[in-house]
C-alpha cells in the first residue's frame, strides 16, 4: 500500500487548496494507531541513511514549505530523530543578505544542495522567490513568472546530477494557525517563537494560498514532486513525511561500497 500517491501532485496540475483537507489523517483514527508504523520507519531510515552515506554517490534533498506555524521546525526535529547528524545538512532560508541579493536568486540555494552521500533539508527554499516575493511584489510580475520554468530546469539539472528531490507543502487551516499563534502568546516556553510580523503575513493568507497553488501546480515534476501534506495533526504530518522519505530511499536502494580486495587476508596483530 503506497499512501504517497494520494498526496503527490501530478505535473501541470491546477491546484485549489480548498479541495485538500488539512485535518485529513488518512487510514488512521488517531495518533495511537500510527505509533508502531512511525517507529518502524524511524528504524528503517537509520539504516537507509547509513547506506546513502556509505555509498557516497547520490543525495536526497527535502524541501519544506508552509505558512507560518505550519510545522517546518517540528518536522525537521522528527526527521532528525531517525538520522545520523553527520550525514545531514539543514539549511534555513530567511530574507536574502546584501551579498545574496547581489547574485541571482538560485545562487544561495545551489550552494546548500546536499553533497554526495548526504541528506539535505531546506527550511523554506527558492520557492520563497515565487511566494513572499510575489505576494509583496518585491520584483515585477514578469520576473517572478519566469521563475517557475527556471526552478523546474534547476531541479531537473540537480536530479540528473544525482540529487533526488522531495518537496512538501505543510497544509494547515487558517483556524489552526490562529490556535498555534495564540499558543505562542499564552505559553511562556513558546513566547520566543512569536513574531509580530507573522500577523501581517496572516492578513495576506489568501494571496499566499494563491501563490502556493501556482507554485505547487507548475513545479511538481517527476524529477521533483510536490506533496500536499495535511498538517493540522502534527503526528500525521510527521508520519506522512517520514513514510515518503523512507519509501523514496528504499527505491533509491543505496548500497554499501564493495570491500577493498584482499580484505580477507588482513591480519590484525596483537
Ligand atoms: P522563520 O520565520 O521560518 O523561523 P526566518 O525568520 O529566518 O525564519 O526567516 C523567514 C522569513 O524570511 C520569512 O518571512 C520569509 O518569507 C523570508 N524570506 C525567505 N526567503 C526570502 C526571499 N527570497 N525574499 C524575501 N524574503 C524571504
Description:
It is a single chain. By secondary structure, this protein is an alpha/beta fold. It has a single domain, classed as P-loop containing nucleotide triphosphate hydrolases (Rossmann fold, 3-Layer(aba) Sandwich). 44% of the residues lie in helices and 12% in strands. The protein is built from eleven helices and five strands, in the order αβαβααβαααβαααβα. A five-stranded parallel β-sheet has the order 2-3-1-4-5, with helices on both faces. α1 packs parallel to α11 and α2 packs across α11. The chain is globular and about 70 Å long. 31% of the residues are buried. The protein binds adenosine-5'-diphosphate. The site of adenosine-5'-diphosphate (ADP) has 10 residues, from α5.
Distance between the termini: 52 Å
Class from secondary-structure proportions:
alpha/beta
Mean pLDDT: 96
Read across the widest sheet, the strand sequence of neighbours is 2-3-1-4-5
What does the overall shape look like? Answer: globular
- State the CATH topology: Rossmann fold
Count of individual domains: 1
The amount of beta strand, in percent, is: 5-15%
Helical coverage, percent range? 40-55%
Which residue ranges are poorly predicted, with pLDDT under 50 across at least 5 consecutive positions? Answer: none
Please work out how many helical segments DSSP would assign: 11
- Give the C-alpha Rg: 20 Å
Major sheet characteristics: 5 strands, parallel
Question: Which sequence of SSEs, written as H and E, runs from N to C?
Answer: HEHEHHEHHHEHHHEH
The ligands found in this model are: adenosine-5'-diphosphate
Amino acid at each position: 500500500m503506497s499512501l504517497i500517491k494520494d498526496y503527490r501532485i501530478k505535473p501541470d496540475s491546477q491546484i485549489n487548496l480548498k479541495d485538500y483537507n488539512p485535518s485529513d489523517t488518512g487510514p488512521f483514527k488517531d495518533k495511537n494507531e500510527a505509533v508502531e508504523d512511525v517507529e518502524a520507519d524511524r528504524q528503517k531510515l537509520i539504516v537507509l541513511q547509513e547506506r546513502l552515506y556509505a555509498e557516497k554517490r547520490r543525495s536526497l534533498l527535502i524541501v519544506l514549505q508552509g505558512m507560518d506555524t505550519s510545522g517546518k521546525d517540528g518536522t525537521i526535529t522528527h526527521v532528525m530523530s531517525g538520522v545520523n547528524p553527520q550525514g545531514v545538512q539543514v539549511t534555513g532560508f530567511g530574507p536574502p543578505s546584501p551579498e545574496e541579493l547581489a547574485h541571482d536568486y538560485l545562487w544561495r540555494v545551489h550552494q546548500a544542495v546536499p553533497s554526495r552521500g548526504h541528506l539535505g533539508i531546506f527550511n523554506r527554499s527558492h520557492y520563497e522567490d515565487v511566494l513572499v516575493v510575489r505576494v509583496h511584489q518585491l520584483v515585477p510580475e514578469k520576473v517572478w513568472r519566469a521563475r517557475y520554468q527556471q526552478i523546474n530546469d534547476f531541479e531537473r539539472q540537480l536530479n540528473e546530477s544525482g540529487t533526488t528531490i522531495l518537496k512538501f507543502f505543510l497544509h494547515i487551516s487558517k483556524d489552526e494557525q490562529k490556535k498555534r499563534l495564540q499558543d505562542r502568546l499564552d505559553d511562556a516556553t513558546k513566547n520566543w517563537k512569536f513574531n509580530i510580523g507573522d500577523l501581517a503575513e496572516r492578513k495576506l493568507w489568501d494571496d499566499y494560498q494563491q501563490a502556493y497553488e501556482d507554485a505547487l501546480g507548475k513545479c511538481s515534476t517527476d524529477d521533483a514532486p510536490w506533496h500536499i501534506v495535511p498538517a493540522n495533526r502534527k503526528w500525521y504530518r510527521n508520519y506522512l513525511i517520514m513514510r515518503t522519505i523512507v519509501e523514496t530511499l528504499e527505491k533509491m536502494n543505496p548500497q554499501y561500497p564493495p570491500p577493498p580486495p584482499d580484505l580477507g587476508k588482513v591480519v590484525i596483530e596483537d
